[in-house]
Amino acid sequence: MRCRTAEQYISQKLDDELKPKHAASLARHLEHCSSCKAFLADTRRLQSSLQDAPLPEYPSWMHQRIMHNLPQAKARFWGFKPAYSFASAGLAIAFSLYIGALTGIRGYQESGYFSQSTGGQSIQLSFGENSLMEMYDE
Ligand SMILES: [Zn+2]
Fold first, then answer.
1. What's the number of CA atoms in the CB half-sphere (13 Å) around residue 58?
2. Which of 34, 57, 92, 113 is deepest in the core (most CB within 10 A)?
C-alpha cells in the first residue's frame, strides 16, 4: 500500500468511515511505516483538540442584523384583498337595489298606481304613503 492511500484510510478511520476490508491492510502498513504512524498520531491529536474546542459564541447583534437584511416579501396578497371586498359590497348594493325596486313595484301595484279604471282610459295617480293616508282619512 502506498502512503497516500494509507493517509486516506487514516482519515476515513478517524471519521469511522473506513471499510473493514481496508482496516486490515492499513494496520499492516502502519506496522512498518513510521511516517504514516506519525500522521495517524498527529491527525488524532488534531481531531481531539477540535472536538474539545468550545463552540464559537455569536455576538448578540448577529441575529438582529441577519433578520434585518433578509429580503422583504412583497405584500401582493394584501393588494388583491380590497378588490374582493369591493366586489362583494357592490354585489350587496346591487342586490338591495333590486329587492327595493321589486318591493316598490309590488307596493305601487297593490296601492293602485298601475291599475286602470274604466277600460284603460284613466290612470289612478295615488300611490305610496299618500294613498294609505287618504284611505284612513275617509
Ligand atoms: Zn506509509
1. 7
2. 113
pLDDT digits (tens, 9 = 90+) for 88-111: 888 999 999 999 998 888 777 766
Placement of cell 369591493 in the chain: 86
Q: How far is ligand 1, taken at its centre, from the CA of residue 8, in Å?
A: 11
Cβ contact 13:26 at 8 Å: yes
In this structure, the answer to whether residues 86 and 43 fall within a common structural domain is: no
Question: What's the domain range around 34?
Answer: 3-52
Q: Ligand 1 mean position to 11 CA, how many Å?
A: 13
pTM metric for this prediction? 0.40
**Residue 37 C-alpha to ligand 1 middle, in angstroms?**
7
Assign 124 a pLDDT band (cuts: 50, 70, 90).
low
